[in-house]
Design a protein that fits this description.
mainly alpha; elongated
Length: 214
């Protein structure tokens, strides 16, 4: 994949623009299909950009454009899932009620947004399938757009910047090799595992308080 992206980005200006479209479509759709390798594509494109920069190649992905493309697609995907869940009706409500994971995330998200904090939305963007759970949960719970959208934008920017930085600096330090891409992916998956762990922890509001009985 690394060689394919490098060839695509370095062949001509027209073909180099396709990498942004491929990344954007992958990021947009992985809210519904979490198995899509959107993070892998972002890191690989950023690694190719680092290699092209060091080699003074004319047509390589631009780091800022790559970050904005991935972040914008992330927010658009979140909002599509949010709107679909908003209009999902009773069938979707029953499906969420049957899923402990979805219903639990919906409750935590509602409490977080009600308190004026949406760190859960940012964490979910890094966790495997967490983005899907939170976006669908926010829509099904009919949370207001102004409560959800700003945190979705922050989450998309944070995830895109982190992924691009991993690929770019990995390529700068280790070269455009499978080792650089592999180390960057391990760091991305490590962040996802940490985010998933934090999401599973009960919020302080849900932890039963134990104290001396009166």
């Amino acid at each position: 994949m690394l060689e394919s992206v490098g060839a695509l980005s370095g062949s001509s200006w027209i073909y180099s623009q396709w990498i942004y479209a491929v990344v954007a479509v992958s990021v947009l759709l992985d809210v519904f299909l979490p198995v899509l390798p959107s993070g892998v594509l972002v890191i690989t494109a950023a690694t190719a950009a680092a290699a092209g920069t060091s080699a003074a190649t004319a047509h390589v992905p631009d780091i800022l454009s790559l970050t904005l493309s991935a972040a914008t697609a992330s927010v658009l995907g979140d909002m599509v899932a949010y709107r679909l869940a908003w209009r999902g009706g009773e069938r979707l409500d029953r499906a969420i009620a049957r899923s402990r994971r979805l219903s639990g995330a919906q409750e935590r998200l509602g409490a977080a947004l009600a308190r004026g904090g949406g760190a859960l939305v940012v964490l979910a963007r890094f966790a495997p399938a967490g983005r899907s759970v939170v976006s669908l949960g926010a829509g099904a719970a009919h949370r207001r757009v102004r409560e959800f959208l700003p945190w979705s934008i922050l989450a998309g920017l944070a995830w895109a910047a982190y992924s691009v930085a991993l690929g770019y600096f990995g390529g700068q330090w280790l070269g455009a090799t499978w080792l650089a891409a592999g180390v960057s992916l391990v760091a991305l998956f490590g962040a996802g595992a940490g985010a998933a762990f934090l999401m599973r922890r009960p919020s302080p509001a849900t932890v039963p308080q134990t104290g001396p009985s009166v």
